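Lab notes, practical 5.
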Amino acid sequence: MKRVIDWIFTIPFLIGFGLTLGIFELIARVARLFGLRPMEVTMGVMQRILLWLLRITGTRLEVERSPHIKSRTGYVLISNHQSMFDVPIFGGLLVTNYPKYVAKRELGRWLPAVSFNLTHGGNALIDRDDPRQALRAIKDLGAECQERNTAVVIFPEGTRSRDGALGEFRPSGTLTLLKAAPDLAVVPTTIDGSWALLRDRMFPVPFGTRIRVSFGDPVERRAGENPAELLERARAEIAATLQGWRTRPR
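Output from the prediction step:
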């Protein structure tokens, strides 16, 4: 019976999901003609719609956000990674921070609207088989986000968790980003539950998934800091947040 319910709500969700991506592919192409900011606003609207569409599947989104996070302000968000839905979730929750992402190059090729945004929206597409290219792209992204005062999200695990477990951090990309954007405060960011949306690769999407997101207090940067210690501090906060959620009574 549970499987039947999942499919009943998955079908309209997938239809809405596909239509949204297709329509916003066209809108984004037009918006980009007028500059990067109109396209960023367009992508923000799209991601808010995708968050609304998740409600069709009974998805519950619970957000803990530090009151010190300001709109229209750049940050380096260091986060764990569980699903491709992490991107629209963060984008939909941080619309006015215009978040950018570090993503594998393959994602810039086949997904309507999302691929166009990753390719033309000021993000970093990296080749995992070419570390020099990857670090150079991340460095350029950090410098641009600092100059434009926009947020940038990086997933140090390097790949999404299939079961929600926090993986080992691969530090090189994040350390490069921190050095390239020394004025942007760091926000330890935690997400949990989004992995379940892809448990069956969206066929179907489990009904009633609970997703929790935490945006911690921004950590201001200081001269002479050790970026590795800052990264470890973020990882420790992410691990503690996950542990707290999973041991807290429902």
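Observations recorded by the TA: The chain is about 45% helix and 15% strand. The mean pLDDT is 95.
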